[in-house]
Structures are given as C-alpha cells and as structure tokens.
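Students often ask what a holo structure prediction actually looks like on paper. The answer is less mysterious than it sounds. You provide the chain, you provide the ligand, and the output is a string of discrete structure tokens encoding the 3D arrangement of the protein together with benzoic acid.
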Amino acid sequence: MEEKCEQIFPKIGETAPDFEAVTTQGTIRLSDFKGKWVILFSHPADFTPVCTTEFVAFAKINDELKKRNVQLMGLSIDSVYSHIAWLRRIKEKLGVEIPFPVIGDIDMKVAKLFGMIHAGESTTAAIRCVFFIDQDMILRAMVYYPLNVGRNMEEILRLIIALQTADIHKVATPANWRPGDKVIVPPPSTMEAAEKRSTEGFEYIDWFLCKKELATPDYV
Ligand code: BEZ
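The corresponding structure tokens follow.
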C-alpha cells in the first residue's frame, strides 16, 4: 500500500512554527527575526543546476528585499559544510556572494515542521517552497514549486510588495497587479455604504469592485 504523508502543513494566517537551526551564518532562531518579514525558502540540494541559478537570482533581489525589511533564509537537507562549499563555488564560478543564511537541515527538523518534503517528488529532498512570514511571525503566503522548475524572482518580489502594500494601505491587489497599479478598495459591508460607493471618487466598476490609486505607493 502507498505510504501516506502524515505531515501537518502550516497554514496561512497561523503563527509560523519557531525553530532553532544551524546556518552558514551561525545558529539562528526564527523568532530572532520578529519585527522583520522573513522569506524562508527551501531548495532540493546543493551543487545542482537549477538551485544554483536560483541562489544567484535570490542574491540579486536581496537588496530590494532589505529595503523592505525582509530577511531571506535558505534551507536544504544538506550539511552546513556542504552549503559552505557550494556557496564558495558559486562565488568562484559566478562571482556572486550569497548574503543570506542557509540552514543545514540534515535531520529534516525544519523541513518536516514546515511540510517541505512532498513524498511524491522526493522523500529525501525538500521541494522548492517559499514561506512569507510577517513581522509578527504570521505565515502570510506560501508558494510551492516542483524539483525541476526554478522560481521566478519577479513574482517573489511582487508578492512581498503586494502583501506589504495591502497591510499598509488596507487594500487588496487585483489579478496581475504590479507595484504602481491601482489597488482594490475593500467592498462596503452595509446597504448604506454600498449606495454611497459610486460617489466616493474611486474608479467605480460596481459597488463591490472599486479601485483607487495610492497617493504614496509603497514601492521604491
Ligand atoms: C536542480 O536544482 O537542478 C535539481 C535538484 C533536484 C532535482 C532536480 C533538479
């Protein structure tokens, strides 16, 4: 009989499970980063081609993320020594320094805690997960990719900016939203407010679908 995966996956809106882990930058706890956003991402294995391209790409968006108070954190089921050797090779061959800590999760403790192992793909390697964790350690978004498809950094940046914009301005973002585009005004919740909606100066498509420009768009 096929063995079922009994992992309990963390859910959006819940507090992210705290952990202590060894990394390429020393021992860290997730809760040490309270007050910052954290993007915790897993990769299947060191010294593999797709992961190498992703690490270079993550390093390239790191400055953009820092400006937005976001800490990147990598993870794979490899040792810290393997990570160190791989990051040194990336620097040597591709000229890119990896500026964020990479967790050596050799005992799969963090991978299991976050549901990063999807047995249909691999029982020994994490899939390509991205967890977006806010300043209060609430898990706000999750993105999962399989082993053979590298992630899109524009989407990762777009998603973190959308989450932060939604929080700061108390709005939502429409399909294909990009920083600078109009945002969605929360729909009215009373008949009276619905009646007034067309008079409030928004781009009015219907009472439940109105958009507005942000006076101070929160992007750099
Ligand atoms: C890669 O990063 O190239 C890779 C890693 C694990 C499985 C397949 C591809």
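The helical segments are 49-67, 80-94, 109-114, 153-169, 191-196.
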